[in-house]
Amino acid sequence: MKLKFALLTALTVATASAFAEKAPEPPGGKHAQAAEQLFRASFRADNPKYWMTRLDQDETMKTCGLYRDNPPRKIGAALEKQNRATIRYPVDGKLMGDWREGEKLAAVGTGGHIGFIQPDPPGRTRGGNCYACHELAKKELAYGTIGPSLHHFGKIRGNSDEIVKYAYDKIYNSNAFTACTNMPRFGLHSWLTPEQITHIVAFLMDPASPVNQD
Ligand code: HEC
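^ Those are the sequences you sent over. The predicted structure of the assembly is below.
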């Protein structure tokens, strides 16, 4: 009995000291570095080399990580401004492409996969995978709900130049409007080309697109 008590006391003291108040480790400290190394080493060596640069965080990612995706408003606004400055437009300046092309791209969830089992072959179409997070055309029943429904997006918002530009900018760099959002920055990361983005814009905006039908 006594022994049990002594053991319990020792255990309590040990546990308490292990969790004792310590100043939190600053970002980039030794534990963070060790975790980063382990993470980088966990990718298969036969992944395309260019892909590994995706592991280098830009300032937006670092700041979002630091604030657990919820930065103070002033810092968020500064990030949004920086991200707005990255947006590039197609050479002919036309932001509305072909909704039929956009419909295909929005639905494609493959391309550019790095592999745990089998990487995507180079050149496989990279899509926007929009349905992973958004409802768009009604006929597609499988969609995620991380993002808001975009069904009737053009019908509700109209397709003024302003809203067309907003849709283009949002897809090009989602963080231009919402710092640290879950939505990828498709244009910034060259995941989609400016031209492909114009097709997806048309898919959202064109009155004939299934997004704007019932
Ligand atoms: C990983 C999830 C994810 C993916 C993939 C994704 N989005 Fe989003 N999207 C979001 C979230 C979350 C929001 C709401 C927060 C914000 O505005 O960023 C959003 C917001 C939007 C908005 C703004 C809606 C509004 O009411 O103003 C548009 C437009 C949009 N997404 C279009 C797209 C398109 C088109 C694609 C595919 C090319 C796409 N998204 C892919 C998560 C995603």
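The radius of gyration is 23 Å. The CA atoms of residues 80 and 175 lie 6 Å apart.

Shout if you want it in another format.
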